[in-house]
């Protein structure tokens, strides 16, 4: 029975109802709803008006069966509470939404097993693509696991050898090298460096920049002050307290990432040490909570919003048949008050 205009019905509105209301063939409705290019603007408006009047909602599951595309993108991050990843996810989702895709966000908690479960769940959902910040790059069978998705993959700050994927990498080397050279020029040679595991590109590239700065400056590399393990606050706090209670303690600190920085700040507070006064302090990545401390903190900055947009663009390009590519995002050392602590600036 035809639906009368304005009359509500408990039965779901079908494509047949829309065709009847618009007075066009069902095939025309299908072309309009699928975004077919060979549809006139007049027809598109007519069909959309009928669909809106009836409250028609497309059956995306049925559409995916017909087209083979779910219009869904998976997004896996290691720590959903990290504001840096929050900005990346937000900007990425905005770009994907413009292209007609929904984004399914999953959190691995930095755990390999959880990440594996995330990937398996996304595979069952038949996603059209994946954007991921992996826990590690050298997990056995990682390549085959990702390849089973049968979908394009974009990695965030990760390099997986042999995987046919795009990657958005930050030039950590340059930013960390610049920061370290600045600290050395101020008279520091006991500089502590805290970061995550070398099983990921992020730490390896930062460490290269840290080492190269000492080599360029002709200063002995402080092996005993380098602590690598996890990106979380617990590790950052415990290592900060350990390093800054050494007999020959550091006079400066570079903390690798927002988690490490949060922990480092907590550790320094418990020791009664003030960044910018008792030590020079440089954070890698901008931490929103810095404003609470009432001082300006130096940082190695990378544009999270740009990373999110570039990741979405790279994935959409691959979905459209484009080739995988690597995009390098620059980092910048921003000098603020906290770089001045610990030692007096050398006169030039």
From TrEMBL:
Domain called HTH lacI-type: residue spans: 13-67
One of the Pfam families matching this protein, by short name: LacI
A Gene Ontology molecular function term of the record: DNA-binding transcription factor activity
UniProt keyword list: DNA-binding, Repressor, Transcription, Transcription regulation
InterPro entries: HTH_LacI, Lambda_DNA-bd_dom_sf, Peripla_BP/Lac1_sug-bd_dom, Peripla_BP_I
PANTHER family referenced in this protein's UniProt entry, alphabetically: HTH-TYPE TRANSCRIPTIONAL REPRESSOR PURR-RELATED, LACI-RELATED TRANSCRIPTIONAL REPRESSOR
Name of this protein: Unannotated protein
């Amino acid at each position: 029975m035809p639906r009368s205009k304005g009359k509500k019905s408990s039965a779901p509105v079908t494509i047949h109802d829309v065709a009847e209301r618009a007075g066009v063939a069902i095939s025309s409705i299908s072309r309009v709803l699928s975004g077919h290019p060979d549809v006139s603007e007049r027809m598109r408006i007519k069909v959309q008006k009928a669909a809106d009047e009836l409250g028609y909602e497309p059956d995306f599951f049925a559409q995916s069966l017909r087209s083979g595309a779910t219009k869904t993108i998976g997004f896996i991050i290691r720590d959903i509470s990290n504001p840096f990843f929050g900005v990346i996810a937000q900007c990425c989702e905005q770009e994907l939404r413009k292209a007609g895709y929904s984004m399914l966000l999953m959190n691995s908690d930095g755990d390999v097993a959880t990440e594996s479960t995330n990937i398996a769940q996304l595979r069952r959902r038949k996603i059209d693509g994946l954007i991921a910040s992996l826990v590690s790059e050298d997990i056995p069978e990682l390549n085959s696991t990702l390849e089973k998705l049968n979908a394009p993959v974009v990695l965030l700050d990760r390099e997986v050898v042999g995987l046919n994927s795009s990657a958005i990498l930050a030039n950590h080397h340059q930013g960390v090298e610049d920061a370290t050279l600045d600290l050395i020029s101020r008279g520091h040679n006991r500089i502590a460096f805290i970061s995550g595991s070398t099983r990921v590109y992020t730490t390896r590239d930062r460490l290269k920049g840290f080492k190269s700065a000492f080599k360029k400056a002709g200063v002995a590399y402080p092996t005993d002050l380098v602590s690598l393990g996890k990106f979380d606050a617990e590790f950052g706090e415990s290592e900060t307290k350990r390093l800054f209670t050494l007999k020959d303690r550091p006079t400066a600190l570079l903390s690798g990432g927002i988690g490490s920085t949060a922990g480092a700040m907590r550790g320094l507070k418990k020791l009664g040490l003030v960044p910018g006064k008792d030590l020079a302090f440089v954070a890698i990545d901008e931490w929103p909570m810095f404003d609470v401390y009432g001082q300006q903190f130096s940082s190695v900055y990378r544009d999270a919003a740009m990373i999110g947009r570039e990741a979405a663009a790279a994935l959409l390009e691959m979905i459209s048949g484009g080739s995988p590519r690597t995009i390098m995002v620059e980092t910048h050392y921003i000098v603020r008050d906290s770089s001045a602590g610990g030692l007096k600036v050398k006169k030039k």
